[in-house]
Specification:
Its cofactor is Mg(2+). Pathway: Pyrimidine metabolism; UMP biosynthesis via salvage pathway; UMP from uracil: step 1/1. One of its GO terms (molecular function) is magnesium ion binding. InterPro entries: PRTase-like, PRTase_dom, Upp_B, UPRT, UPRTase/APRTase. The protein is α/β, with parallel strands linked by helices. Helix content is 31%, strand content 30%. The chain has a single domain (2-49, 66-207), classed as 3-Layer(aba) Sandwich (Rossmann fold). It has helices at residues 9-19, 25-43, 84-90, 137-148, 163-172, 202-207; strands at residues 2-5, 49-55, 60-66, 72-77, 95-96, 98-103, 110-116, 125-129, 132-133, 153-158, 160-161, 178-182, 188-189, 195-196. Strands 1, 4, 5, 6, 7, 8, 10 and 12 form an eight-stranded mixed β-sheet that branches. Strands 2-3 form a two-stranded antiparallel ribbon. The N and C termini lie far apart (36 Å).
Length: 211
């Protein structure tokens, strides 16, 4: 597994505002969307392309376009939905799947309650988006499902990561083609398995606590 922490002043600036507890939900959603686009720019550096011949207004030339099969973007519900627009803005031709996962607050294990994506992901580059890599359980379960369906190149894009979660992913996904792209690896997890200093519950801060 490879982890890439995006070191850029704009990333640090937006992340600082996301961390601030005074930031309201509309502002949080907007900044998360902007931050995801910056992270996605780095995450798609190795997106697969193919050569294509075109005509400019001046002459014939050769360029590149995204190759087939098209990339697949998979947000982890519900907080991952807040990252989807930022991804498809950069990859408008990508297909979108969904995985609904929830953390058991007693065991801290991830439980899947819904999936919507192709059964066969052979040859697909897949971008999983989830704001927080905390314990690592959710992303490990999601990526295992993608690999089981044939994905051979998976990138997880997270706003924040905890060292404990990174360690779990490195152990549980050893030997699999996985990259993690994040804005920061924070200090630790607290007793409730929240990232410290973190930014709180990303889903609640994006959408409120209803339901």
């Amino acid at each position: 597994m490879r982890i890439h922490v995006v070191d850029h002043p704009l990333v640090a600036h937006k992340l600082t505002t996301l961390r601030d507890k005074r930031t309201d939900s509309p502002t949080f959603r907007r900044l998360a969307d902007e931050l995801v686009t910056l992270l996605a720019y780095e995450a798609t550096r190795d997106v697969r392309t193919e050569r294509v011949d075109i005509e400019t207004p001046v002459t014939a030339t050769t360029g590149v376009r995204l190759s087939h099969p098209r990339p697949l973007v998979v947000p982890i519900l519900r907080a991952g939905l807040g990252m989807l627009d930022g991804m498809v803005r950069l990859l408008p031709t990508a297909e979108v799947g969904f995985m609904g996962m929830v953390r058991n607050e007693e065991t801290y294990e991830a439980q899947t309650y819904a999936t919507r994506m192709p059964e066969d992901l052979s040859g697909r580059q897949v971008y999983v988006v989830d704001p927080m890599l905390a314990t690592g359980g959710t992303l490990v379960a999601a990526i295992r499902e993608l690999i089981k369906r044939g994905a051979d190149d998976v990138t997880a894009i997270c706003l924040l990561a905890a060292p404990e979660g990174v360690e779990v992913m490195e152990k549980e996904l050893a030997g699999t083609p996985v990259t993690v792209v994040t804005a920061a690896v924070d200090e630790r997890l607290n007793e409730a398995r929240y990232i410290v200093p973190g930014l709180g519950d990303a889903g609640d801060r994006m959408y409120g606590t209803a339901g």
